[in-house]
Amino acid sequence: MRYLIAANWKMNKTVAESVEYIEKFKPMVEDIHQVDIMIAPSFTALSSVSLELNNTKIKLGAQNMYHVDRGAFTGEISPIMLKELNVEYVILGHSERRHIFGEKDELINKKVISALEYGIRPIVCVGETLEERELGITLNVVERQIKMAFAGVYPDIGLCDIAYEPVWAIGTGKNATKEQAQEVHHFIRTLINELSKGNDETTRILYGGSVNENNAKDLISQKNVDGFLVGTASLDPEKFYKIITHSLEV
Ligand SMILES: O=C(CO)COP(=O)(O)O
Questions:
Q1: Count of domains in the chain?
Q2: What per-residue confidence (pLDDT) applies to 250?
Q3: Is residue 8 marked as binding?
Q4: 9 is in an annotated binding site
Q5: If you average pLDDT over every residue of the chain, what do you get?
Q6: Which pLDDT tens digit goes with each residue over 75-117?
Q7: CATH number where 236 lies
Q8: Threshold 0.95, pTM exceeds
């Protein structure tokens, strides 16, 4: 399994700041070929970052998209607009989209289907809230989110990646322990194996939620942790680079 180490910059960095980051980061990872590296900047920086990443191995991602190719959808971004900028990955169903903007499983499913149609690889985010964890329903929540996100496309799960991001671990500095992560990742691996009838060999199950240069090695050493989706720590090229190098050590 080729790991994927992905940066989700969320609503951070202007165009100038994004370009400055990439110029610093590119030479740092020039000789790293063993893992896939992806960066998802803000929509306004996609075009400039796309040019910067030309002729590098670093992949470009978007943080969201709408599922329709054009039309009267004020404020939305379509898959053809992303394709034009060489976007290869799209983060879908992030908990901030679900909880702040009210995205439901049904909409996430439409977006997954659309991304696959346009050849953009979805990274589908799932994860429980603190309340759900305390109620002991973490695995039920993750199962529902996965079954609904991939409804109608189970045989194509291998064309997607999944990020397990417990909501209580995002931006809190309180990451899941390696045991907590492994338990859910193992559950997801078994579930997608069943759903896709064994077609999931290329699906990476990423962990996200307060990943940093100090906890990355412990987390990635777990059998079913196939990479990371990093928020805060990815905003600093040195920290993001360290997370990548730790994932080369396992
Ligand atoms: O939401 C995340 C990545 O998508 C994780 O964010 P943090 O790394 O800031 O906790």
A1: 1
A2: 81
A3: yes
A4: yes
A5: 97
A6: 999 999 999 999 999 999 999 999 999 999 999 999 999 999 9
A7: 3.20.20.70
A8: yes
Dist CA 52 CA 64 (whole Å): 21
Ligand 1 binding pocket mutation candidate from 230, 236, 239, 240 (most atoms within 8 A of CB): 230
The tokens for 79 are 């898959």
Q: Which two tokens stand for residue 230?
A: 């990093």
- Closest atom of ligand 1 to 172 CA is 10
Measured from CB, residues less than 6 Å from any atom of ligand 1 are: 8, 94, 165, 170-171, 208-211, 229-233
Chain-centre distance for alpha carbon 168:
17
What stretch of H or E contains 228? Answer: strand 227-230
DSSP 8-state assignment for residue 189: H
Question: What domain range is 130 assigned to?
Answer: 4-248
Question: Any known ligand binding at 47?
Answer: no
The whole-angstrom separation of Cα 39 and Cα 68 is 23
Residues noted as catalytic = 94, 165
How far is ligand 1, taken at its centre, from the CA of residue 201, in Å?
A: 25
Q: Which atom of ligand 1 is nearest to the CA of 209?
A: 10
Question: What digits encode the pLDDT tens for the residues 191-231?
Answer: 999 999 987 889 999 999 999 999 999 999 999 999 999 99
State the distance from the centre of ligand 1 to the C-alpha of 5, rounded, in angstroms: 12
Please check whether residue 206 is in contact with residue 166, taking contact to mean a CB–CB distance below 8 angstroms.
Answer: no
Q: Which DSSP state fits 167?
A: G
